[in-house]
């Protein structure tokens, strides 16, 4: 990446936990003074990691190319519970677990989610239903009718398991909801599950090493 010139183009920016993707875009607008700033691949506020940012008219038009790129995540999943949002932000319900799964049980279950699978987006998601965001309907206390969608999971590695937490490395195609994947893995295990922590470590060829913090972006922009 050409760091000596940050005037216009597409850059990987590292989003910290607690910020929305739009808040990152707003900060980049303030730094650059450029109105045409956008991002590809939204990250939930509780997630951290790489957000692809486009600065300038041409760059924002080309952001759609990155939506279809392969993505990599590190997900910490909590078993034994369900969440209305499929992450730790939602209202939680403890599950009566009949059998705590072994490491072998988890490895066998993960195999079921490799390749093309169908998953239903979380109730609290940005998916549109009759022109309305699903999370807006869910926040109003109404049940959201979402259709299952076909996604591709290239690889799932079990990094660590110590009940009730499972840490996974997931490599997947576009449109995959890691919250849905965690929820469905939990249902297969008979334990329930939700995403406890999530980091996006790669989008296409952009990885953590190439990603800029907001502070680094600001520093390099000023130097230009």
Describe the fold and architecture.
- The chain is α+β, with helices and mostly antiparallel strands.
- It folds into two domains: 9-68 and 205-223, 2-Layer Sandwich (Pseudouridine synthase), CATH 3.30.2350.10; 71-202, Pseudouridine synthase (2-Layer Sandwich).
- 26% of the residues lie in helices and 35% in strands.
- It has seven helices and 13 strands.
- The chain has helices spanning 21-32, 57-61, 64-67, 103-111, 134-139, 178-189, 214-223, and strands at residues 9-15, 37-40, 47-55, 71-79, 81-83, 92-94, 115-119, 128-129, 132-133, 149-162, 165-172, 193-203, 206-207.
- The strands form three sheets. Strands 1, 2, 3, 4, 7, 10, 11, 12 and 13 form a nine-stranded mixed sheet that branches. Strands 5-6 form a two-stranded antiparallel sheet.
- A hairpin with an 8-residue loop joins strand 5 (81-83) and strand 6.
- Helix 1 (21-32) runs parallel beside helix 7 (214-223).
- The longest helix has 12 residues, at 21-32.
- It is elongated, with a radius of gyration of 19 Å.
- Mean pLDDT is 89; it is low at 1-5.
């Amino acid at each position: 990446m050409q760091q000596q010139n940050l005037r216009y183009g597409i850059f990987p920016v590292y989003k910290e936990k607690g910020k929305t993707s739009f808040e990152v875009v707003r900060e980049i607008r303030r730094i650059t003074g450029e109105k045409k700033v956008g991002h590809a691949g939204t990250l939930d506020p509780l997630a951290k990691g790489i957000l692809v940012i486009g600065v300038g008219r041409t760059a924002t038009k080309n952001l759609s190319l990155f939506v279809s790129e392969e993505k990599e995540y590190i997900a910490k999943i909590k078993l034994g519970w369900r969440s209305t949002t499929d992450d730790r932000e939602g209202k939680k319900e403890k599950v009566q677990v009949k059998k705590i799964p072994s490491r072998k049980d988890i490895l066998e279950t993960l195999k079921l989610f490799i390749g093309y699978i169908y998953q239903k987006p979380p109730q609290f998601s940005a998916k549109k239903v009759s022109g309305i965001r699903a999370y807006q309907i869910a926040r109003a206390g109404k049940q959201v009718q979402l259709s299952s969608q076909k996604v591709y999971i290239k690889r799932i590695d079990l990094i660590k398991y110590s009940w009730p937490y499972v840490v996974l490395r997931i490599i997947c195609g576009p449109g995959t909801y890691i919250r849905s994947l965690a929820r469905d893995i939990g249902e297969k295990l008979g334990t329930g599950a939700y995403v406890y922590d999530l980091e996006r470590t790669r989008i296409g060829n952009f990885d953590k090493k190439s990603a800029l913090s907001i502070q680094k972006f600001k520093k390099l922009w000023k130097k230009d």
